[in-house]
Amino acid sequence: MSPGGDAAAIEAVLREMRQEFLDEAGDAARDLLLRVEQVRHDTGGDLADVVRIARRHALVLRGQGESLGLSPLATLGHRLGDYLSESRSVVPALILDDLEVFLEVIVDLVEGRIPADTEQGPMVRGLPAKRGFAPEDIEVRDIEIMLVMEPGAQTHFVERELQQCGYRTVQIGSTFEALPLIVRTRPDMVIISAVMPGLTGIDLAIGVAAMPETRNVPTALITSLDPDNELLALLPGQVPVIHKGPAFADDLFHALDTLFLI
């Protein structure tokens, strides 16, 4: 077989795999919508089971969507998993309402009502905001802040502070995963932990500030490094530094104010 024939055969296999994945993703989302209705009307099912199945569905979307080049579904999988990661304190009725929105967007994508090349920034802003730390009566602002930080107490603290001020938040635990999501979803601000496995947060901040696709995305660095640490001197001048410790609240306010997000 000629090289051109090989390429055509591979593309045909990929098309088949993508279609199978889309069919399975649609079936799973529709099944979850049915389970949501059953729990809502108390006709069967259990919220904990629905959340567990939805988390598994999110992981599948995130992994297979990325590997098959279906990035909108991968992005949705990440957002759904991130939302559910902090849903324990959310009122069950709100979880069901929010899950319904996520699942309907997934169905619209797999059935073609949302184009495969849709702009992902507006798409994710139409999804429910993460509610884990914010009281129900706080008005959520249309300002999205991406936290590139490993899961843990410090991340929870930062996310709680932002949510209680009405900001939409999304948490990414890997600098390598964060970069394409920054390009696709265009958050209003990215707060990056200086110490991250693999590619450091300082490296990511430098890269975001340098690349044409991302240089206009406001970025801040959060760190426990001493202010005169030589590594911080590598940061571009427009990247504010948020220091952990007593100055955290003031530094966070200053960073948000500097980037016109107050």
TrEMBL record:
> Entry's InterPro entries?
Bact_response_regulator, CheY-like_superfamily, HPT_dom_sf, Sig_transdc_His_kin_Hpt_dom
Q: List the residue ranges forming a coiled coil, or say none.
A: none
Which top-rank group of organisms is this from?
Bacteria
Q: Which keywords accompany this UniProt record?
A: Phosphoprotein, Two-component regulatory system
**GO-annotated molecular function:** protein kinase activity
Which biological process, per GO, is one annotated for this protein?
Answer: phosphorelay signal transduction system
- List, for all copies, the residue spans of the domain called HPt: 10-113
Q: List, alphabetically, the PANTHER family matched.
A: PROTEIN PILH (PTHR44591:SF20), STRESS RESPONSE REGULATOR PROTEIN 1 (PTHR44591)
Protein name, UniProt field: CheY-like chemotaxis protein
Q: Which organism is it from?
A: Roseospira visakhapatnamensis
The upper taxonomy is: Bacteria, Pseudomonadati, Pseudomonadota, Alphaproteobacteria, Rhodospirillales
